[in-house]
């Protein structure tokens, strides 16, 4: 391995380790402003360390550091009003080895194992297998050039790979992680809870998809701004912040597509606000499950090329699948 890359990876590990170790004192003393400063500083340093590295490596480094640093912000914001109960050991496992943003499940780490761990692990393994099959199918389609139209090939490949990698990571690895931590006594749960059953975009983002992310934006952005800006203003800023974080993950690594992920989340913010109006004046609109599912599917899929823009597909998604 390239010695220069080894040094950069070591620096990445050291930065995240320092965030975890120093974070324990920071969150206990509720240094919220310092948490934000460390978040911005750590992301900036990681960007400079990996700016000339492969986009996949750059993306992984940025995402990992973002989750570690944002835990300091989220937990500090939460514990303005509630006591912080984690021991240093529990904090280290929570901050360094779990994707969720709520520390409470790790208060029981080391105690009796909650039920359901084996089911989570089995579920995760099954999703990894399904995701791997989709990626294998995509490679076959490309190898034998079974789709003649370039635009159709691009769309089908992108869709299959996005679903395949999502099954592996979101529903596979994270479910196994939740199950394994339950075996150690932590009260961890699925972070992706049957998103296909969502009957509105509000339900999708708030209760179904990536609860770690929704928890983070809720405690770090929405709740602090709610009293100042009201529900609508806080909601809008929360979605914009989510868009900016996705810019870090999807645009910065490929140095292209800037503004598109943010626009995707801005559209979703406006749709969530629209759903509130619809519920007020037409409460039966979402009662029809067919209409509700079609509504959610439309707003998730139609603007999706803004979020997963062509440069991300070409420079990260396809290479990850070996295409």
TrEMBL record:
InterPro entries with a match to the protein in the record: Wax_synthase, Wax_synthase_dom
Start and end residues of each Wax synthase domain: 191-252
Main location: membrane
Top-rank taxon, per record: Bacteria
Transmembrane helix in keyword set: yes
BP terms from Gene Ontology: lipid metabolic process
Subcellular location: Membrane
Ranges that cross the membrane: 6-24, 31-50, 56-75, 124-142, 154-174, 233-252, 258-278, 290-308
GO molecular function: O-acyltransferase activity
Membrane-protein topology: Multi-pass membrane protein
Keywords: Membrane, Transferase, Transmembrane, Transmembrane helix
Pathway annotation from the record: Secondary metabolite biosynthesis
Gene Ontology CC: one annotated term: membrane
The protein, known as: Wax synthase domain-containing protein
Gene source species: Mucilaginibacter conchicola
Lineage, opening ranks: Bacteria, Pseudomonadati, Bacteroidota, Sphingobacteriia, Sphingobacteriales
């Amino acid at each position: 391995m390239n010695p220069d890359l080894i040094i950069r990876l070591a620096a990445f590990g050291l930065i995240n380790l320092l965030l975890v170790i120093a974070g324990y004192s920071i969150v206990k003393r509720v240094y919220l402003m310092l948490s934000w400063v460390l978040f911005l500083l750590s992301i900036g340093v990681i960007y400079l360390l990996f700016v000339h590295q492969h986009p996949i490596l750059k993306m992984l480094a940025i995402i990992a550091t973002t989750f570690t640093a944002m835990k300091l912000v989220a937990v500090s914001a939460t514990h303005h009003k509630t006591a912080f109960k984690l021991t240093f050991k529990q904090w280290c496992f929570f901050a360094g080895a779990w994707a969720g943003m709520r520390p409470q499940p790790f208060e029981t780490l080391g105690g009796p194992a909650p039920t359901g761990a084996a089911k989570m692990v089995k579920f995760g393994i099954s999703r990894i297998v399904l995701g791997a099959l989709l990626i294998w199918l995509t490679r076959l389609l490309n190898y034998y050039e079974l789709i003649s139209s370039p635009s159709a090939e691009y769309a089908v490949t992108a869709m299959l790979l996005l679903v395949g990698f999502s099954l592996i990571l979101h529903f596979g690895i994270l479910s196994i992680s939740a199950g394994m931590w339950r075996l150690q006594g932590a009260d961890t749960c699925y972070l992706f809870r049957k998103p296909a059953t969502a009957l509105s975009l509000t339900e999708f983002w708030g209760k179904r998809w990536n609860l770690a992310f929704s928890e983070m934006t809720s405690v770090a952005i929405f709740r602090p701004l709610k009293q100042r800006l009201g529900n609508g203003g806080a909601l809008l800023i929360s979605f914009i912040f989510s868009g900016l974080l996705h810019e870090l993950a999807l645009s910065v690594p490929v140095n292209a597509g800037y503004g598109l992920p943010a626009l995707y989340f801005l559209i979703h913010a406006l749709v969530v606000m629209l759903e509130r109006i619809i519920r007020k004046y037409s409460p039966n609109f979402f009662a029809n499950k067919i209409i509700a599912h079609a509504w959610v599917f439309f707003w998730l899929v139609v603007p999706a090329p803004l979020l997963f823009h062509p440069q991300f597909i070409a420079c990260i998604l396809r290479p990850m699948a070996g295409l």
